[in-house]
Structures are given as structure tokens and as C-alpha cells.
Amino acid sequence: MPPSAKRTSSHLPASTSAQILDREFLTIRGKLLEVAAALDRIERGLGSASSDPRLEKIRETLAILGKDGVDRAEQLQLIFSLPYQSDWLKDRVGHAPTGRKG
């Protein structure tokens, strides 16, 4: 993507990629170390979590983070989100769902 096509917020002055990296590097580094340490603790734990769907979602998101793009946050959010249900509002407008008292 050409630099001129990058999204910018209308209320913040545009920063260069290098400026953003300078500002964010230590925070990103710290968060990545936290993720790595958590995954290490899971691996060292008793038993195995290798077939846990949550761990598969984490692996899927790590693969996305390694790719170039401007929509990685959106992709990660979609992985961790529940599928859309067209009748989601039904339970919130006075109709008690089956099995619950209204």
C-alpha cells in the first residue's frame, strides 16, 4: 500500500511509519513477550492443551500478525468473535429465551 493511501485519523496529525514504530516499539515488544511467556507456561503445564480450540485460535492469530496488511486487528477480532446471529435482538426486547424466566 502506498504511504499516501494509509488511513489517518482526522483529529490527529499524520505520523510517519518510523515515528509510530519509535513510539510503539517497547509496548509491542512487552506484549509479545507476555504472549510468549503465557504460551511457554501452557506448554510446561501438566497434560496437553494442544487440541483446545482456544489455542488453535491463538495460533491462527499469530500467523496473521506475521503478515503485512492494515486490517490485522479486524481479522483477529473476527477470529475471537462469535458468529453473527440474525435473531440476537429477540432475547433483548422482552422475549425470554427458552429455559429462562422472563
Please give a structural write-up.
Helix content is 49%, strand content 0%. It is built from 3 helices and no strands. The mean pLDDT is 85. The N and C termini lie far apart (52 Å).
Outline:
The protein has 3 helices and no strands.
What labels would you give this structure?
49% helix; 3 helices; single chain; flat; 102 residues; mainly alpha
Helices, strands, pairings?
Blueprint: H1 17-44, H2 53-65, H3 72-80
Helix pairs in contact: 2-3
User: What percentage of amino acids are in beta strands?
Assistant: under 5%
Query: How far apart lie the N and C ends?
Result: 52 Å
Low confidence ranges? none
Mean pLDDT: 85
Helical content stands at 40-55%
Largest sheet: none
Shape: flat
Please state the CA-atom Rg, rounded to the nearest Å. 20 Å
- SSE string: HHH
Number of helical stretches of at least 4 residues: 3
Total strands: the figure is: 0
- Give the structural class: mainly alpha
